[in-house]
Amino acid sequence: MNKTSIIDQLTEAFRCLPGVGPKTAQRMVLHLLERDREGGRRLAARLSQAMDTVGQCESCRNLTELSLCEICASKSRDEELLCVVETPADVLAIEHSGSYRGYYFVLMGSLSPIDGIGPEELGIEQLLGRCSQGVKEVILAVGSTVEGEATAHYIAEVAKPLGIQLSRIARGIPLGGELEFVDGGTLSHALEGRKLI
User: Is 13 helix (H, G, I), strand (E, B) or coil?
Assistant: First the structure.
């Protein structure tokens, strides 16, 4: 096969997905071309639409196609609670647990100076501004990685002068684990067992 063929280019494009290597990408492409061209067209249309319309919520930075995400637009949530997470996948994981009814702030990463990710990239100023809008408790629900620990410590230090109660989810999350891979029961217990820092 010609290395510049559209099939090779499409296979290479699929490899941008996490956990998708060359063989898996090739299987996906061949499946769509051999057995599900209509599914491939739907996938291409939805992917193109999402790339053009999905942005960040003005309040929490979660992914949404609206100016305010569904959670931030809800009036039935506890406005005194703000849960700080690293990624939109973390919001989905906590929401799936059904044990939290406050609002969120999505950092879109964690502090990592070696990767050029500092407080500005995480929206720390926006987070502090959000904290001044009636928030009584900030729950730090970041990963137990070295970067997650550094992020939690930094946020705790810059938020202390605001006089807001700061807590960290309990250590039921495995060391080095990411929230998006933890089951709902473990997340529920971790949120209930959070401790002040």
Answer: helix
